[in-house]
């Protein structure tokens, strides 16, 4: 993500980058601790998504495994 900070440092001096009103691009520069925090948040959000998916899969498996009590065909299909 070093390219983001490089852009921010160069953007204020560039004629090709639109100027901000009442701000500078440098105001948005992120420190190393900011990048670490963002990385941790990204990992947490990914884990949250995986957890939801796993819970939905387990719920579905429980639903269909209870059907095996009714007939042997469901048990065979569950194994496929």
Notable features of this structure?
80 residues, 3 helices, mainly alpha, 68% helix
Present the secondary structure layout:
Layout: H1 2-11, H2 32-67, H3 72-79
Strand content: under 5%
What order do the helices and strands follow?
HHH
Cα distance spanning the termini: 44 Å
Q: In DSSP terms, counting alpha (H) and pi (I) runs of 4 or more, how many helices? A: 3
Structural class: mainly alpha
Overall average residue pLDDT: 81
Largest sheet: none
Q: Provide the gyration radius in Å.
A: 25 Å
Low-confidence stretches: none
Assign an overall shape.
rod-shaped
Helix content: 55-70%
- Strand tally: 0
Give me a quick take on this structure.
With 80 residues, the protein is mainly α. The chain contains three helices and no strands.
Structure report:
Helices cover 68% and strands 0% of the residues. With 80 residues, it is mainly alpha-helical. The chain starts with a helix and ends with a helix. The chain is rod-shaped. It has three helices and no strands.
């Amino acid at each position: 993500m070093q390219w983001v900070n490089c852009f921010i440092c160069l953007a204020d001096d560039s004629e090709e980058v639109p100027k901000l009103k009442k701000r500078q691009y440098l105001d948005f520069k992120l420190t190393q601790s900011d990048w670490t925090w963002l990385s941790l948040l990204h990992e947490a959000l990914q884990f949250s998504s995986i957890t939801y998916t796993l819970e939905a899969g387990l719920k579905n498996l429980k639903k269909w495994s209870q059907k095996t009590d009714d007939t042997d065909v469901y048990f065979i299909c569950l194994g496929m």
